[in-house]
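Quick board copy: two proteins, each given as sequence then tokens.
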Amino acid sequence: MSSSLVQSLLGAVFPTSDLEAIDSPIKPFSHITVKPDLIPGYRDSYVALAAPVIAYWTYSIFFHIVDEYKLLEKYRIHPSEEQLSRNRVTQAVVLRDVLFQHFIQSLTGYYVAKFDPIFTTGYENAYLWQIRQSLPGFIPTVLIYAGYWYFSSLAKIVVAFVIIDTWQFFLHKTMHENKWLYRHFHARHHQLYVPYAFGALFNNPVEGFLLDTCGTGLAAISLGLSPRETIFLYTFSTLKTVDDHCGYQLPWDLFQYVFPNNSIYHDIHHQMFGIKYNFSQPFFVVWDRWFNTTYHDIDNYKNKQQEITVAKYRQFLKERKERNKKE
């Protein structure tokens, strides 16, 4: 595909007036104002706190409905009855602890938001004009524009993923290697041998604060993410964490398709035989590979669980058919 064709395609997407201003021989005028909030009347900083909580419970409720009405039984990692027989904590306790974690998370975020800088707008075209002047003419203006508005944000989000993964891996691994830390903090999360969606943030409050709240907050602050980038990072990370604990291998689940660190990968870590493996979370598996803590028989475990699930699913269909006949 030629560069001129790429430029014309991108030019059809981005505002022509902005591109013309950046290409102008005269530097565009800057009119700097406070950047408007994404949702009028609600500060972006507070939306960044509310959005992940709303996403967590919306996605969790979806999977809870799927669980209760047995809508996707053939995709379960574990048979449904194991959720009651193997887990060492009730759903009521899990619900209480996750709500408390969200309270601590939101309270911390509310306090930190008071120190957020004021983000402005109106200078962008003048800034991009300066970049345009310093770059060779063969580089399309539309590429400069797209790089500033979209590619740079994407790059920062990917780096944020790496920071979160690094923070969580080493803290998570340390909590397993130190018996005192494991017994007093991390063991609580491992009361769920059969994970389910809304148990994703079931932790000791201290661990939850250090592992999740501080890890994601550190990534956002250290990279200087804009409010909207922060909203995306917090919400996406939350959805990914819920998906990792959902208890299903879904063929059309993009989280599970794109990321090697997925529900089956993390489920192994919740089993007694896998508790010393698969510490990486929630995006990549690089650190596990680096430290040789990857569980190497994942495919065999996956196939074995699928066989069990398929057998249970057939039994479920048979029982449902018999019930329907009686009715």
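And the next:
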Amino acid sequence: MPELGDPDLRSPRHYLRWLIGRQSSTLFLGVVWGCLWMASMGLTPFAIGRAIDAMAQKDTDRLLVWTGVIVGLALVTTAGSVLRHRCDTIGRLKANYLTFRLVAAQAARLGATLPKRISAGEVVAVGTADITRIGALPGALARGIGSAVTVVLVAVVLLSTSVTLGLLVLIGVPVLLAGTGPLLSPLHKRIGSYRDLQGDLTNRAGDIVSGLRVLRGIGGEAAFGERYRKDSQRLREAGVHVAKVESVLPAAEVLLPGIFVVAVVWIGARLAVGGGLSAGELVAAYGYAAFLMLPMRTATSAVQSFVGADVAARRVVRVLALEPDAGSGEARADLPEAPGLYDADSGLRVRPGLMTAIAASTPEEGAEIAERLGRYAPGQVTVGDVLLDSLPLEQVRELVMVTRNDDTLFSGVLAEDLGGRSDEVRNQALHDANAEDIVGALPEGLDTVVTEGGSSFSGGQQQRLRLARALAARPPVLVLVDPTSAVDAHTESVIAERLRTSRAELTTVVVSNSPLLLDRADEVAFVEDGKVVVTGTHRELATGASPYAAVVMREET
């Protein structure tokens, strides 16, 4: 497989040209074998015609020679077909996997930016239907070039026999192929519309599956099912519209060459009657005309493949052109084991080795600060004396972990999902997150296989398992966004107490308006209108009729 390289993203067609250029040797061989395959078939009528003339003249030696030529052409055709198909397969796989690897690498580079810019269904559709269409292009291009070369070759052979028939091929074939041109624009538009609906439907299906438990709980399963059925019908109708245009192309592949065959045979018969062609040459002319149906169909199919690949490349380029919300530096920095952070946008200062809580007048304000602290959103955050944006993204991810309630529990063995350097660390993390009872109730304990998204667990159980996973990682800086919003007060109190002990001497930021968590923090920062307006302990800030007290007491009630 080729290295990824830097794709040309100026337009879908630039990307396709770059992709073809990455496998120029495979394409060259595909063209060579394709030309050999078609040319050997195209010359077979010529050899048959000469053999018929030898029979008519009772020339046994010439008959044997041309019979041998026919057998040789058949062997060359067979070999060319096998080798051409092999190159087609290699080209398709290279295009498929190179595009797939580019999209996968881009998804990893974008990280949390990707779901903000494009839906999961769109990404799935890019990785399935679009990659398939793009993979079909190299083989179609090689066959199309082979078809063009073969048509010219047949025309030259015919010109040596009859100028009229040769010119008919040279002029008639391009004119007939141009007759399919008016179909390409509506086909391109309809495939694009179908592709849009396909991405939307895939995204809706993913939403339904991931939220099935909630939908059943609120009685919304039937409503979403009905929406899915309606969207599915719209997609079906769009598919029918695409098929109406696509079905004309196969009909044209039969009708137009059929007209051409009739014209060649009629003109050839008139020439034969007038003595301009021998019987063998007339048979050869018919064979040429019948054979030309194959390169004409191949050329039409190649154009159809290009239209589909162009639509697919537009989607791929859209994904590959996305840029992450935050950039990445290059030089790693030496930082303390438990560094402090400062967010210039809000004025929040996180002291090293302590537990800092962020209480905000609205949940969005606290979440925005957490995004900046983890460098999931642009901002002016410093760690120690170093600007966070100047560090390599890999070092940032090692340094700061942000845990949110929409983080995913991956399918697979629970122990592997929770991570941790050892069983001891993992078990301690489960204890600190008050999640031991969850594992104890599972039939196979930590060896239990978790379903996609942890859908077999309740909301509170998922939250505690996510917290245990974060604690098992033991990052130098841990940012928790509403880590106890789905648990009861008793469980929250236990978690708050154990969290402080678990993260002793490490830097921890908790975004929450829960009094139980705020009371355990070393320092609380109250944020209003995106700015830190006051700091102190929970008990200091909660006295009197302060805005902080109003927000926290509202949370408590």
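Board note added afterward: The radius of gyration is 35 Å.
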